[in-house]
Amino acid sequence: MREDQEGRHGHCPLGRREVVLGGAALLVAPVGGAEAADNERRPRAGDVLVHSMGPKKGAPLRLEDLPLGGPGVLAFPRDEASGTVLDGSRFNEVVVVRLDPATLGEETRKGAAEGIVVYSAICSHEACPVNMWNDHEKTLVCSCHGSMYDPREKAAVVFGPAPRRLAQLPIKLEGGVLVATGPFDGRVGAVRAA
Amino acid sequence: MSKRTLLAAAALMASAASVQAYTPVTDARLANPEPHNWLMTRGNYKGWSYSPLDQINTNNVKNLAPVWTFATGKRSGHQSPPIVNDGYMFITNPDNQVIALDARTGEEIWRFQGQGPEEFSALHNTNRGVSLYDDKVYVAMLYGDLVALDAKTGKVAWKTTVANWKVGEYMTMAPLTVKGKIVVGISGGEFGVRGFIAAYDAKTGQQAWKTYTIPAPGEPGSETWRGDDWKRGGAAAWMTGNYDVETNTIYWGVGNASPWFGDQRPGDNLYTASTLALDGDTGKIKGHFQYHWNDSWDWDEMNAPTLVDYQHNGRTIKGFIKPARNGYLYWLERLQNGGIGFVDAKPYVYQDVFKSIDPKTGRPTYNEDKKPGTGKRAEFCPSLWGGKDWPFEAYNPKTGMVYIPANDNHCGFLEGKVQEYVAGKWWTGVDIPDIGFTVKKDAKSFGEIQAWDIDAGKKVWSVLYPKSMNWGSILTTAGGLVFNGGTQDRMFRAYDARTGEQLWQIKTSSGIIAPPSTYMVDGVQYVAVQAGWGVDPQFQQGLLSNLIPGWPKATTEGGVLWVFALQR
C-alpha cells in the first residue's frame, strides 16, 4: 500500500486492452473433430496456453507477449490433441506473469519457467476475475473487491478479503510457447453455499 | 455434464410451535399496512421507512434491550430488513439464504438455501429482502432467478430465470409486489449490461412485462444514444421501487451508464441516473426525470424517491423528496400525466461538479474540469459512492422531516481508458486498482444523519460521525425516534427525531448496513435489525485505512439478527 494521501492502491492495468471488439465473442464451438471436444475440462499436462482476449485471442502465448515484471496476460489452456480451447468454463482462465526468476520463492519456482508463473484467474473470495494488476505492489488484483495476490509466493493473499491463495498451474517453455506440466496445484473458485 | 444442473434449491423445515396461521397478504393490506406489521422493505409503498408504533418512544427508549438474537451463519454484507406479517418474520442473507422466524420468540420456522451455479462470481454478495403476496414469499437470487416460496413451509412454489449471469446480470434488490405481480430489476452496471425492470405473475411466475431502462432505436429517448452504445449502456435497476396507489404508477430508480466515462457514449443516455415512472399494470414508461446527463462519475440514481406531499411557494405539491447520489437533495412533483416535474434542488454535501441547475427542468451544467473522460483525469466531489449510496432515507409525517444517511468530505478521481468488452467481466473503463478515493484532510466528520424540514427546505439538525462513514438505512417512528446503524464501530443508535439528540445505543456483533424495521406481537413493540458488515462499506473502509492514520482496517464480519424491546 502506498503511504500517500491518495486511496488508489496502484495503477497500470493488467494487459494492454485498447481495442473494443464489435461483438460479444463467446464460447466458440470446437470444429474439425467428429465429436466436439470437452471444452470444460480442467487443464492438464500437455495443454498449451493461448491468449483469451485481445488481438491475439486464440494464439499461443509467447515469451515476447509477456512484459518482464508484469502486468500479467490472461490465457486459456488448449487441448493439443483436438485443438479445443478450454474456454467452456471460466474456471479454466489463468493469468500469466513474467518475473525476475531470482525474485520467486522456492515453491513457486518449481512450477515456473524462466520466471513465468501461471495462476488461476478466479478469486478465492467470490469467484470474480483476477484480471487486474497493481504496478506499485506488483501484485495480481481481483476485479471485484480488490484482493491482492503475490505472484512470487504462490499467489498468497497480501490484501483484501480473499481467504486463500490462487491455485498455480505448473508450466514449461517448449518451442517458445507455454505448456502445462500438470493440473492446478489447488482448488479453483470460491468456497460458498451458493 | 453441465453446471446448469446445479440450480436446484432446498428448503428445510423446523417445528413452529408458536406460529400457526399465516395471514394472506392482499393489495389492500399492502396499500394500508397495519401499524403492527412491516410488510415491505421501506414499510409502505411511499418509501417512508416509518412506523406508526409508539410504544417505544423518546421517554423510554433508554430501556431498550435485546430480547433475542439469531446467527445467520453467513459472512458478507447483510442488507435486508426483517419483513414481518402477523408474527412471521422473513430475513434474507448473502449466499441466497432466506429464513423464516417466529417474530416473537426467534424460533426458526424454515430456511431456504438457493443453489447458484458454481462459476457465478459475486461483485455484491448480498440481498435486500423479500416481498410478500397472498401466502407466498418472493426473493431474487443473486445468480438471476426469482423464487416464490410457501410462506409457512419455505417450499418452492415456482421459480423463473430473470437475469443472465453470464453477461453480468444479477439481482440483489427486494422485489416489489404490485397488484398481483412481482416486480424486479437487475444489477450489472459494471459489466456492460442493458438494464431492465420486469414483472411476474405472483401465482404462476409467468412474465407479465419487461421494460428496458435504455430505449431501443426508434423508441423515445433513443436519440440520446450513439450507434450501438445502448446495447451495453448499463442503466441497471438494482434497487426496489416505490408505488403510487392512487395513480397506479411504479417509480423505479436507474443506475450508472456504462462504461463509466461519458465520452465513450456521447449523449444524455436516457434513462441512466434517472427515476422512471411506469404503469403499474403494463410497465409502460409514463415519464422520467434524469438527475444528471451523460453520467461520468458512477453516480447511480438507483433509489426510488420518497413519495411525500409538501408545501412549496404556498401550494401543496404531491411530490417526491430524493437525496441523490450526486450530492443534491431534490424536490420533485408527481404530475397528473404520470410525468415527473422538477421543483427544486440544493446540495446536501459538498459537490463541485454542477455549475448550475436549470430552475425549470432541473438539468445541470457541469464544470468540465470535474468530469473525467478517456485519458482525462479529473477529481470530483463527492466520490463515486455519492452523498448517499443505496441506504434508505426515512420520512416522519409527525415531524415533517426527512432523515438522510449522508457521507460528506470524500472525493474521487478517475481516468478512463477503453477496455475490451468480455461478457460478464468488469467493463467500466477503469480498473479497480485505479479507482481514486480521497478525503478532505481537514475534515472533522464523514458519516452523517441529516434531518431536513421538507416544507421549509432547510436542514434542521445533523449528527456527525468523526470516525466513520454512514452506511445505515434509517427507521423513524411515531414514538419520535430515529434509528440508525451504519458505522464501522458496530453501534446501533436511537435519536430524538426532532432534535437529533442521541437517546440510546448498543454495541452489536458487526457493522449494521441493513435497514431496521419495527413491529408488534402480543402487545409488545420490537425493533429488529441485522448486523453483518461487508461489500462496499468494507471495501471503502480498506481504502480509508490507507488515507487516515488510525482508521480501523476492518470491522468483523458475520451475520446476526438483533431484536430489541423495552425491558420490563
In short:
The complex is a heterodimer of chains A (194) and B (568). Chain A has 194 residues and is mainly β. Chain A has one helix at 106-110, and strands at 48-51, 73-78, 94-98, 116-120, 132-134, 139-141, 148-150, 156-159, 171-174, 177-180.
What can you tell me about this protein's structure?
The complex is a heterodimer of chains A (194) and B (568). With 194 residues, chain A is an all-beta fold. The N terminus of chain A is likely disordered. Chain A is globular, with a radius of gyration of 16 Å. In chain A, 52% of the residues are buried. Chain A has 1 helix and 10 strands. Chain B has one domain: 8 Propeller (Methanol Dehydrogenase, Chain A). In chain B, 3% of the residues lie in helices and 37% in strands. In chain B, strand 18 and strand 19 form a beta hairpin. Chains A and B meet through strand 5 of A and strand 30 and helix 2 of B.
Task: Give the SSE layout.
The complex is a heterodimer of chains A (194) and B (568).
Chain A: E1 48-51, E2 73-78, E3 94-98, H1 106-110, E4 116-120, E5 132-134, E6 139-141, E7 148-150, E8 156-159, E9 171-174, E10 177-180
Antiparallel strand pairs in A: 1-2, 2-3, 3-4, 5-6, 6-7, 7-8, 9-10
Chain B: E1 10-13, H1 27-31, E2 50-51, E3 64-71, E4 83-85, E5 88-93, E6 97-102, E7 108-113, E8 131-133, E9 136-140, E10 145-150, E11 156-161, E12 176-178, E13 181-185, E14 196-201, E15 207-212, E16 242-244, E17 249-253, E18 274-279, E19 285-290, E20 306-312, E21 315-323, E22 328-334, E23 340-347, E24 354-357, E25 364-366, E26 378-380, E27 394-396, E28 401-407, E29 410-414, E30 436-439, E31 447-453, E32 458-465, E33 474-477, E34 481-484, E35 491-496, E36 502-507, E37 517-521, E38 524-531, H2 535-547, E39 560-566
